[in-house]
Design goal:
The chain is an alpha/beta fold. It is built from twelve helices and 14 strands. The strands form two sheets. Strands 3-2-1-4-5-6-7 form a seven-stranded parallel β-sheet, covered by helices on one side. It has a seven-stranded mixed β-sheet with strand order 10-11-9-8-12-13-14, with helices on one face.
Length: 368
């Protein structure tokens, strides 16, 4: 007999953190799965909301401000700059919790799914969280205080019925200490669901020598854009560059020599270019890494300066032989792309991608 809970159409509040575009893009496969038998209401802000509205024009969307974290250009003082914002971030978290309760009442929400929005939960209805950071990475001089982030996460996770980690459970996982700290080993509230990617692997329809994705938080996104546009002019062959600006009023592409430049591409066009590309250059955001690994493409990773999570992931995956990484200030495109491993990812065993049956079953929504 079919489970009655699986048959019932739910109204789901799906909240996404606006921290670059990665949280929005990795949520797309889950939103598509949820939409098949449920009504999904999107809650995000900034570029993440704009991207989701483009991908799901039939979904109701709410501009739901998050923590408004600001960055500076100097990586050496970035952590201190973020630390000084902590009181305001905590206040925003309190406001987020209050606003969530109002949204539940106003939209008659039955269930919540939150991608890294720690304050989007309710004790009255099932609430689920997705994150790949069970432990935050601190600067090297502050490693001894990382246990505080574990305690903070343990406190937050208690507010949710279940927590999903988009990574593999086994030893050759992607997130390392971020997603597999010893303090959470054996926690029945956690489930590793494998990697997520909205970029399907498909036969190439043309040849692109390289694809450069510029993304991330300002002002570092603009800093990288200037570096890339200056250095890419010397690259041989055809290169496609996406500036990561979904809010740009200029939709058409421009040509600069052999460079094909777009302010933004929808996910379908992005999939075509990524499958056609011989090599990818991108930030070391975790969602981007999942997409590249799903396609088994060689890549050069450029961590956002001062973002310790990206720096850790880039160094870890370079040590594993998957990619080559370089600090932004040391970037030399012509030379760095020569150091990218070309065959390592192709030798890896097949891994499940977008295997959401476990996630849907835990949420009481049946399977795909």
């Amino acid at each position: 007999m079919t489970d009655k809970c699986a048959e019932k159409k739910r109204r789901i509040l799906f909240a996404v953190l606006n921290w670059g575009l990665g949280h929005a893009t990795r949520s797309i496969p889950i939103i598509r799965a949820l939409k098949k038998n449920n009504e999904v209401i999107l809650a995000a802000t900034g570029r993440s909301l704009q991207l989701l509205q483009r991908e799901f024009p039939d979904c109701a969307a709410i501009d739901f401000p998050d923590y408004g974290v600001r960055y500076c250009r100097n990586r050496n003082v970035l952590f201190l700059y973020l630390l000084l914002q902590l009181p305001r971030i905590l206040w925003c978290l309190i406001l987020e919790i209050r606003r969530t309760q109002c949204l539940i009442e106003a939209y008659k929400i039955d269930l919540i799914f939150s991608d890294n929005r720690y304050g989007v939960f309710s004790k009255r209805i099932p609430s689920f969280l997705m994150t790949h950071q069970l432990q935050f990475r601190l600067p090297r001089t502050l490693y001894c205080f990382e246990w505080i982030s574990v305690l903070f996460n343990k406190l937050i996770f208690r507010q949710f019925r279940h927590v999903f980690i988009p990574d593999f459970k086994w030893s050759d996982n992607l997130t390392g200490q971020l997603g597999h700290p010893l303090a959470f080993r054996g926690d029945q509230r956690l489930s590793y669901i494998g990697i997520l990617s909205d970029i399907p692997k498909q036969p190439a329809t043309g040849k692109v020598d390289g694809f450069i994705m510029i993304s991330g938080m300002e002002p570092q996104r603009t800093v990288l854009e200037k570096l890339i546009l200056d250095q890419a002019k010397a690259l041989p062959g055809r290169w496609v560059i996406v500036l990561g600006k979904p809010d740009s009023k200029r939709e058409q592409r421009t040509w600069v020599g052999q460079l094909d430049i777009y302010p933004h591409l929808n996910r379908s066009a992005m999939a075509d270019v990524m499958n056609n590309a011989e090599l990818i250059v991108a930030r070391a955001g975790y969602s981007t890494i999942m997409e590249i690994i799903a396609l088994r493409k060689p890549a050069l990773l450029i961590p956002t300066p001062g973002q310790t999570e990206q720096e850790y992931l880039a160094e870890r995956l370079t040590e594993m032989g998957y990619f080559h990484c370089v600090r932004q200030k040391d970037l030399n495109l012509s030379e760095d792309i020569k150091r990218v491993p070309r065959c390592m990812l192709k030798r890896l065993p097949e891994r499940p991608i977008n295997d959401l049956d476990t996630l849907l079953a835990i949420m009481g929504l049946g399977t795909i």
